[in-house]
Amino acid sequence: MTKPILEMKQITKSFGSLIANDQVDLTVQPGEIHGLLGENGAGKTTLMNILYGLYRQEAGEIYIDGNPVQICSPKEAISLGIGMVHQHFMLVHNLTVTENVILGQAKKGQLFINRQEAAAQIKAKAEEYGVELDPWAKIEDLTVGLRQRVEIFKALFRGARLLILDEPTAVLTPPEVEQLFQLLTNFVRQGNSVICITHKLHEIKTICDKVTILRGGRLVGTYVTNEVDADELAVLMVGEKAVTPVKSRKSGNNKVFLKVENLTTELDEGDSPLNQLSLEVYEGEILGVAGVDGNGQTNLAHCLAGLKQPKDGKMWWAGKEMNGLSAKVLAEQGLAYIPADRHGTATAMGMSLAENLICRRFSLAPFSCKGFLSPKAIEHYVQAKIKDFEIKTPSPLVRLAALSGGNQQKVVLAREIDGEPRLIIAHQPTRGLDIGSTNYVHRVLMEAAQKGASIILLSTELEELFAICDRIAVLYRGQVMGILPAQETYLREVGLMMAGRVEPKGVDDHHH
Ligand SMILES: Nc1ncnc2c1ncn2[C@@H]1O[C@H](COP(=O)(O)OP(=O)(O)OP(=O)(O)O)[C@@H](O)[C@H]1O
Ligand SMILES: [Mg+2]
User: Fold this and answer.
1) What is the CB < 6 Å shell around ligand 1?
2) Which position among 250, 405, 415, 417 has the lowest Cβ density within 10 Å, counted as fewest Cβ atoms?
3) 186 alpha carbon to ligand 2 midpoint, in Å?
4) Distance between CA atoms of 427 and 297, rounded to whole angstroms?
5) Confidence at 28, pLDDT banded by 50, 70, 90
6) In ligand 1, which atom is closest to the CA atom of 87?
7) Higher per-residue pLDDT: 22 or 435
8) Contacts with 235 (C-beta within 8 Å, 6 or more apart), sequence order
9) Ligand 1 center to 504 CA (angstroms)
């Protein structure tokens, strides 16, 4: 029998009174892709951070190739052949792919690494793994998927035999996911191993040989993926409490609430500019916006939320012009905006959970009265939000940075979906959320629509769009390619439009 490449035995790690990992075992064999599954806050990232030398366990041992090891820093992890790609990449943007890959790798006594040589090696290695990578491209010009590929190659060039990926597909488009899987399959074929954290059960079924499930910091078990189906995985993950399925609801009425006409924006770096984009959203309707990331989603969201002024075109809500209104005024008048990038504009990592929850409202009653803050009202509100959104936290006072990725996302949602918004712009609201929380967010959006709110749901997940939207608009290069009813029969058409493969045609002739 071959020796496992990795054995983690009885690993325990706590943060204050919270036990993030409680006697967890994990064994990974050479040539294996091993999934790591669990609800938000289950302890997946913590376990991997211990393996990568970012945290130190209080108890338990780690063995690499059968030998006991102490891993006190990422440097030591790397020297043992462990590589990790975090959810938030750490590349230097104005450098090239080659420069990023070789950064900090010059050996003692060596002044610099020959770039030409390194670039040739990168190219060769990419070909060997069946993917493309231009060694001379600048990071800032690359898509998220390619940046991730650079991170992976950085780890490979440092000799990684065991690659840890934390929710790698959360930010990828479907073709990028396929290429990543191709790369990983080729990587493990050579006897290397991968540990992959994901919330997507079908991905576990597709590429993982085995899966280890954590619940509340404890090991549930390790399973051969061929021997369990997706439903069983879900039950193992959430335990006794059932996953409430999303209920259907009646669609909106025929009153147009939001109208956007010929919206056009200036050229910008990260996203395709809008090019005469028009659409309408009815009262009580959820309009999905499908499309490959970077086709104008961020520009559309920013224009509607008052964060960007269009170059041309008009927007109205409830018959009144929205152009020129600031984000603050729009928010006061009932616009809720859930941005895709929860680490930038959406949150303050150094502030507490409670502060993040109320920062939009602290100057309003009941939190503030005649200029004084009311701690009672604030605490009551914050506790209610933590309960409603099942935010896992030891206390409302911890810094946001100490919450798990999914729980940070829930804080943004809890803050934004509050009161009775008239218009909700939700950009990838369930990215990084586990199944239970995803369903919860879907229910929240559907209930808001039921109460009459108009909702624009921008998502790259077709499954999500078809599950809860009334209609789906397909965005391609800053234009609406078409709008279709959210019925499974239109799945193929939506897919084609996402690739820009259908002529723009009569918007909206299918419905209403
Ligand atoms: N640096 C930290 N300080 C305090 N608590 C922390 C810290 N890092 C993690 N925790 C807590 O440990 C628990 C496990 O967090 P972890 O990030 O490992 O979860 P996860 O399984 O990766 O969840 P997600 O799917 O949401 O990313 C959470 O309750 C989290 O709040
Ligand atoms: Mg995590």
Assistant:
1) 15, 18, 20, 38, 40-46, 392-393, 402-407
2) 250
3) 26
4) 8
5) very high
6) 27
7) 22
8) none
9) 45
344-364 pLDDT per residue, tens: 656 677 788 888 887 766 555
List, for residues 252-268, the tens digit of each pLDDT value. Answer: 678 999 999 999 999 87
The Cα–Cα gap between 109 and 439 comes to: 56
**Ligand 1 atom showing the smallest separation from residue 214 Cα:** 21
* Amino acid at position 1, single letter: M
Residue 511's pLDDT is 47
The pLDDT confidence band at residue 404, using thresholds 50, 70 and 90, is: confident
Quick one: which ligand is closest to 393's CA? 1
Give the count of alpha carbons within 13 A of 42, CB side only: 25
Q: Which residues pair with 250 in a beta bridge?
A: none
Residue 440's pLDDT band, with cuts at 50, 70 and 90, is: confident
Residue 296 DSSP class: S
Q: CA-CA distance, 188 to 185, in Å (whole number)?
A: 5
Taken in order of first residue, the domains within the chain and their CATH numbers are 6-238 (3.40.50.300), 255-334+422-512 (3.40.50.300), 346-419 (no CATH)
In this structure, the residue with its CA closest to atom 20 of ligand 1 is 41
Centre of ligand 1 from the C-alpha of residue 217, in Å = 9
Question: Quick one: CA dihedral 389, 392, 395, 400, positive or negative?
Answer: negative
User: Which backbone phi and psi does 209 adopt, to 5 degrees?
Assistant: -80, -40
| Residue 7, both tokens | 């054995």
Is residue 265 within 8 A of residue 311, CB to CB? The reply is yes
Residue 34 has pLDDT above 50, yes or no: yes
What is the identity of the amino acid at 154?
K
| Dist. CA 357 → ligand 1 center (Å) | 18
CB-based burial label for 89 (10 Å; 0-12, 13-18, 19+): middle
Does residue 401 register a pLDDT over 70?
yes
Compute the mean pLDDT over every residue in the chain, rounded to the nearest whole number: 87
